[in-house]
C-alpha cells in the first residue's frame, strides 16, 4: 500500500488493525479526503474513539511536542491507578504543567475519603516523577466533577493548548466526548493545519481561535491486568456499578481467592476482617490455606473463575509476595482487579497475582 497520512491528524493510514492508530477501512481509501477512523467519527458524528499505541511509539510521536507550551491533563482510572498512571510521562511531556484526573469515581463506595484518595494520587504521581498542579476526581459517565475540572483547566492552561493523555480504557473518549458536548457542539471540530507535515496522530478540538484540546492515542501499559484476560473476563472483572464491599472474618491460615485470578493468604495475626472491593460479579472464595494450593490446581477456570479458557491461554503464572502490615488500615491492591482493606495491624499476608501484575500495599482511603 502506498503511504498515505490521515488528513485530520497526520497519522500514517493502515487498514488492518481496527483498534490501532491510523486505522481506516480499505473502502474509505477512495475518498477524496482520507481520514483515519478516529478523525472520521469525530468529524461526522462529533464522537471520538480511542485508539492505542505502544509506549515507545508514543514516546517517539510526542517527542515532537515536548518543547511546545501547553497544559497536560492526565486521565487515570481510579480503580486501577497503579496500572494507569503513566510512569514515563515526564519523559514524554517535558516540564509542562500536569493536572491529574481520577476518573470512574462513581465506582467507589460513598464512604471513600476523597481527601485521602487525592493525597494518595498525588504521592503516586510524585513517585513516578510527575509533579501535578492539581488533582481532580470525576465520573465521565455521570458527568460528576466535570465543571470544576473544566474551570481548573481554563485557569491552568493560560490560553495554551491542552493535551489529554491516558492509557487505554481509562475513559478518555467518554471524557472528551463530554468536553466536546460542553465546549463546542459544532461540526467539523478537527482542524488540519496545526502541525502541517508531521505525523502526530493527535486530534484537535478547538477551544478558541488560538488553542485546542489535543486528544492523543491511548498508551498501552503491558502491566495492566486487562492485557492478560479475555474480553469476556474483562467484562466480569470491570465494575459497572458502585462497588459493594464484601467483608470476611478470617483467622490466620485462611485464604481468599478472587475468582481464580488472585489470592490472599492470611499467614499470621489475630482474627480480622478483610474487606474486599472488587466488581460485584467477581466471585470470592474462602478456604483453609492448607487446601489452597490443591484447590487452585484442580479448580482454576471452573469453581475459581474467571479465568475462562481464553484467559488461561494467555495468563502468566502466579507470583506471590509477602507483606507485613504494621500500621492501621491498609489496602492490599491487586492492580486492575480491586483491593482488600485490612483494618488491623501486626499481621503477615501473602498475595498472589499473575506475574507482571504486581500487588502493592497503601494506606487505606476507605
Ligand atoms: P478509552 O479507551 O480511554 O477511550 O476509554 P472509554 O471511554 O472507551 O471507556 C472505557 C470503559 O470505561 C467503557 O466501558 C466506559 O463506559 C467506561 N467508563 C468511562 N468513564 C467511566 C466512568 O466515569 N465511570 C464508569 N463506571 N465507567 C466509565
Automatic annotation (TrEMBL):
Pfam families assigned to the protein according to its UniProt record, in alphabetical order: MMR_HSR1, YqeH-like_C
Domain of life, source organism: Bacteria
Domain CP-type G: 45-222
Protein name, as recorded: Ribosome biogenesis GTPase YqeH
Originating organism: Lentibacillus juripiscarius
Lineage: Bacteria, Bacillati, Bacillota, Bacilli, Bacillales
Amino acid at each position: 500500500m502506498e503511504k498515505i497520512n490521515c488528513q485530520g491528524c497526520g497519522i500514517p493510514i493502515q487498514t488492518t488493525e481496527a483498534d490501532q492508530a491510523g486505522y481506516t477501512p480499505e473502502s474509505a481509501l477512495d475518498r477524496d479526503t482520507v481520514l483515519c477512523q478516529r478523525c472520521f467519527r469525530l468529524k461526522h458524528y462529533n464522537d471520538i474513539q480511542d485508539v492505542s499505541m505502544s509506549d515507545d511509539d508514543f514516546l517517539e510521536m510526542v517527542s515532537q511536542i515536548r518543547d511546545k507550551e501547553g497544559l497536560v491533563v492526565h486521565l487515570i482510572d481510579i480503580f486501577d491507578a497503579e496500572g494507569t498512571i503513566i510512569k514515563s510521562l515526564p519523559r514524554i511531556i517535558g516540564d509542562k504543567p500536569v493536572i491529574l484526573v481520577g476518573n470512574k469515581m462513581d465506582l467507589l463506595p460513598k464512604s471513600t475519603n476523597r481527601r485521602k484518595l487525592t493525597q494518595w494520587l498525588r504521592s503516586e504521581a510524585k513517585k513516578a516523577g510527575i509533579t501535578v498542579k492539581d488533582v481532580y476526581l470525576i465520573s465521565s459517565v455521570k458527568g460528576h466533577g466535570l465543571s470544576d475540572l473544566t474551570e481548573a483547566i481554563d485557569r491552568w492552561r493560560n490560553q495554551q493548548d491542552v493535551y489529554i493523555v491516558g492509557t487505554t480504557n481509562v475513559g478518555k473518549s467518554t471524557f472528551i466526548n463530554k468536553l466536546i458536548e460542553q465546549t463546542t457542539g459544532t461540526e467539523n471540530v478537527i482542524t488540519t493545519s496545526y502541525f502541517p507535515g508531521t505525523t502526530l496522530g493527535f486530534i484537535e478540538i478547538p477551544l478558541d481561535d488560538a488553542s485546542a484540546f489535543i486528544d492523543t492515542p491511548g498508551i498501552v501499559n503491558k502491566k495492566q491486568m486487562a492485557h492478560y484476560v479475555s474480553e469476556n473476563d474483562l467484562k466480569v472483572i470491570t465494575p459497572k456499578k458502585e462497588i459493594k464491599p464484601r467483608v470476611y472474618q478470617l483467622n490466620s491460615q485462611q485464604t481468599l481467592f478472587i475468582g481464580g485470578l488472585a489470592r490472599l493468604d492470611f499467614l499470621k495475626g489475630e482474627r480480622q476482617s478483610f474487606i474486599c472491593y472488587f466488581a460485584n460479579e467477581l466471585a470470592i472464595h474462602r478456604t483453609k490455606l492448607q487446601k489452597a494450593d490443591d484447590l487452585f490446581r484442580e479448580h482454576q477456570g471452573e469453581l475459581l473463575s474467571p479465568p475462562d479458557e481464553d484467559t488461561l491461554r494467555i495468563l502468566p503464572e502466579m507470583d506471590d509476595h509477602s507483606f507485613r502490615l504494621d500500621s492501621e488500615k491498609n489496602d492490599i491492591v491487586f492492580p486492575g482487579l480491586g483491593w482488600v482493606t485490612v483494618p488491623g495491624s501486626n499481621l503477615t499476608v501473602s498475595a498472589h497475582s499473575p506475574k507482571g501484575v504486581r500487588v502493592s500495599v497503601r494506606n487505606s482511603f476507605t
